[in-house]
Amino acid sequence: MFYQKNYEISHRKQDFSLFSVQFFVTLHPNIKFMKKNPLIQLGNVPVQTGTIAAYFDYLSSPSEKIRTLEKDGQLIRLKRGLYVVSDEVSQKPINVRLCANHIYGPSYVSLQWALRWYGLIPERVFSMTSITTKRTRMFENSLGRFTYFQVKPDYFSIGIKSVEENGVYCLMGSPEKALCDTILYDSYLPSQSVKRLEQYLEEDIRFDMDALSDFDVSIIEACAQTGRKEQILNNLIKIIKKI
Questions:
Q1: Is the pTM of this model over 0.70?
Q2: Which of 1, 14, 162, 204 could join 200 in a cystine, given CB atoms 3.0 to 4.6 angstroms apart?
Q3: Within a 10 A sphere around the Cβ of 215, how many other Cβ atoms?
Q4: Distance from C-alpha of 229 to C-alpha of 234, rounded to nearest angstrom
Q5: What dihedral angle (degrees, nearest 10) is formed by the CA atoms of 119, 120, 124, 125?
Q6: pLDDT in tens, 79-120
Q7: Whole-angstrom distance, CA of residue 209 vs CA of residue 240
C-alpha cells in the first residue's frame, strides 16, 4: 500500500511536469529548444573562415553554413575569408579598430580617425584610416570604409601604442604619430613655413593647440629623421617648443 501511494504521487508529478511543458509550448508556439550558439566562443575578435568552419565540421558543407550565418546577420564579412561575429550573438561590442588591424596588416589606426578618437580634432571622420608597410589600399564592408596608407618600415615602427577597450587590444598611432601621419599624407600643405603650419593646424584641421604642450617631441623628431617632409615636421617641433 505504501509503495502504491508513492508510485501514484510520483506518477502524478510526472504528469504535472509533462502538462507544464505542453502548456508552456502551447502559449509560446514559436519557441525553439536549441544548443548554445558556438559562435559566442569567438567573441568579437576577427577570425578566418577556417576557424569558423571548424565549429561546423560535422556538416557536409561548413562553407555553406558560413554563408547562411552571414545572410542571417550572425557573421559580418570584413573581407574575403575574414569575419567578425555580430554583437547580438557575441554579446560584445564590435571594435572597429581591431577589425582594421586584422583586415590589412601589419597596420595601426592613425591619421584623422585617430586624431578624432583622441579628441584632438572636432570633425567626424567617416573612413577608418590606418598606416601600413604594404601598398596603399581601401576596403569597404557593412562596418564602413577602411583606408590604408603605405610608409617605409623604419617610419612605421615609430610611436605605435597598444590601446585596450573592453578587454580587447588594438594598435594605434600615438597622438604625436597620428599628427605626423596626417601631415605626411595631406597634399594641401605645400608651404615649408612655421606660420603656414600653424594656420593649417588651427584653421584647416582645427587641431586642439593646447594639447601640443603634452606632446612627446622625441616621437616627432624620430619621424622627421626618416626624411619625408622633414622640414615641416621640424617646424612642428618649433611650434611645440614655444608653447
A1: yes
A2: 204
A3: 18
A4: 9
A5: -110
A6: 999 999 999 999 999 999 999 999 999 999 999 999 999 999
A7: 9
